[in-house]
Design brief:
Blueprint (H helix, E strand, L loop, with lengths): L2 H96 L1 H8 L4 H7 L2
Length: 120
């Protein structure tokens, strides 16, 4: 072979190597672009999940506040019922002590359930 053939072969090999390297970097660039797109998609999914969680947390906080208000109202109503019951029991006791007719009626035939309630 002549020197020209060797040079042509060397140039051909150089171009082939250069082409191979270019194809390798092109494939790497495509993979990097796919990974970047996947990262963006994952980020968007995470952001959407965080927004949904924030909305859920907001609803739970509102529900907890409403439950607290309801519990406070129930506690007030129970206290009022207890006060009214205590007042009624006290009034019946006073009436029993002060009024002969009531005392006589209560001493008579009183249903056992009422007697149990009055003599607690």
């Amino acid at each position: 072979m002549t020197l020209r053939a060797y040079i042509a072969l060397a140039v051909l090999l150089a171009f082939m190597t250069l082409g191979g390297v270019a194809l390798y970097y092109r494939a790497e660039a495509a993979d990097a672009a796919k990974e970047a797109q996947q990262a963006i998609s994952d980020r968007d999914t995470a952001i959407a999940a965080n927004k949904a969680q924030e909305a859920t947390i907001g609803r739970l906080r509102a529900s907890a506040e409403a439950n607290d208000r309801i519990m406070a109202q129930m506690a007030e109503q129970i206290a009022a019922i207890n006060n009214a019951t205590a007042q009624t029991s006290e009034d019946i006791g006073k009436l029993k002590d002060a009024n002969e007719g009531v005392r006589a009626w209560l001493a008579g035939l009183v249903p056992p359930d009422i007697d149990r309630l009055l003599n607690k």
